[in-house]
Amino acid sequence: MSDMKKALVVSNLTTGYDSTAAIEDVTFEMPHPSMMVIIGPNGAGKTTLLKTIIGLLKPWRGEVFVFGINVYENLPKVRRLIGYVPQRERLSETVPLRVRDIVLMGRMIRKGPLSIPTKEDIRAAKEALEKTLVPREFWDKKFSELSGGLQQKVLIARALAIDPKILLLDEPFSAVDAPSQREITELLAELRRKGVSSLIVTHDINPLIEYTDYLLLLNRKVIAFGKPEEVLTEENLSKAYGIDVKIISHEGTCYAIIGDYHA
Description:
Helix content is 29%, strand content 28%. It has helices spanning 46-53, 75-79, 99-108, 119-131, 148-160, 178-193, 228-231, 234-241, and strands spanning 6-17, 20-31, 35-39, 61-66, 69-70, 82-85, 166-170, 197-201, 214-219, 221-226, 246-250, 253-257. By secondary structure, it is α/β, with parallel strands linked by helices. The protein is built from eight helices and twelve strands.
């Protein structure tokens, strides 16, 4: 498989903050298109890994390639390929941002300050919103007045508005109800069918398990990586979380019962 057939290649990646390593010697390859999930306890380095992939943090050692492009040698080109959905921002309610402002932000941030949205920008933003099943009439609504599930869909639409080849999502199910979780999961599965990969950080694999192609179990170092049924063993999970973990199998699918519910 050529590097262009791989959404991500992470090799011996080590980085952190100040002099403290947050992740050490992380290595994995993510084929394209696929859906990959990262789980691990609080402080495992999951968000740090995402930030390093998109170039917000520099590696101390190791390399990251996105579709065969070295992230740190050609960051602008790589960022055109990635849609990033960070943990849901606490946007100030005193700033009257509307849904349209949030979604258009995904395109305008690449054009620089004081840019004015073109007809093409507005068309792309509305199409992205439509993909996430947000009703058209919400285009002019205040973002702060939406439910947690709708806010998350709008933030995903912002990432989709640039037509990325890979989505990086950090805790997309936080404060999101079960029906919205299901809709977001089905959206990511549909995007995979259309050639868009997704890398998802979550503290709960269960809503995604039936759609997950690859699973990375992380606790600063890679505890296990592979197909979910290979990674989700009581031994691996206990090693990562430091507690006893139960695995329940139902109709050939493994579900993890984990006592850690922190990001």
